[in-house]
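HUMAN: Now follow token order:
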Amino acid sequence: MRLVFAGSPAAAVPSLTALAARDDHEVVAVVTRDDTPQGRRRVLTPTPVAVEAERLGLPVVRARRLDDDVTARLAALEPDLGVVVAYGALVREPLLSTPRHGWVNLHFSLLPRWRGAAPVQRALLAGDRVTGADVFRLVPELDAGEVLGRLEHRLRGDETAGELLGTLSVAGADLLVEVVAALAAGTAVSAPQEGDVTLAPKLVLADGRLDLTAPAGAVLDRWRGVTPEPGAHATFAGEPFKVHELRRVDVDAGTGAGGAGTAPAPGVLVLHGRRVLVGTGSEPLELVRVQPAGKKAMAAADSWRGLAERADRRLA
């Protein structure tokens, strides 16, 4: 089939690569978001999908939104199928009906759970133990179309959103190739979504705030869900304090500073051997890699001297 591919971030690259490698399909255009300023010098930088498309020698259409001009350009290519993987904007009519077989979307959740922009992050924030990916038909309603293919993925309980998205993007690319092949062969079977609808809106900076009065499991789930973006943080002595790596510890929950005493109160920092622990609403967690205000990211143990200078060694 003649395919139009729409995607922008790194999570969409495996799907584009897999589809472009097929001899029985032709990717006639790749639609991606405009180049954006990146870094301190605000250098205009193409999306990961644009970089991959150019490496593959595919024509690229850069567009902030899918307007009438984009629709006309794609219609002129007479595509058989549109494929979306995290493009970053909605596909609406008349573009929705432009390809002969419509559009399909690879979405990183088990629909109808976590419809929206941040399904992987929201699944981890909620403490889900099973997630996956669906390929579904695009319809005007957000992420509501019939499902054409599904894969399930059981979570270990320690992966971050970045790690999980990387895993699902590779496995999902294989699923997407299978669905596109079935559509081309006329053997695809779709099924309506079943179950309760939950929404997955885009995360904002405030979502990364750690509530250390919550149980350790909930704190860890929040850290997992917001890592690497928008990033987990608290405050120390009134200044921002980023938490880049956090994990459970195999120590007695009653261990305090110096190896004796009660468990640290929520937010209180203690040194246990060479490990920096932080109290939560239940057992402590280990801070592995942190970034105090005005500093570079570092091992938590290396930050202890600066932290210990404060009489109140507490994250809030």
Summary: The longest helix spans residues 161-185.
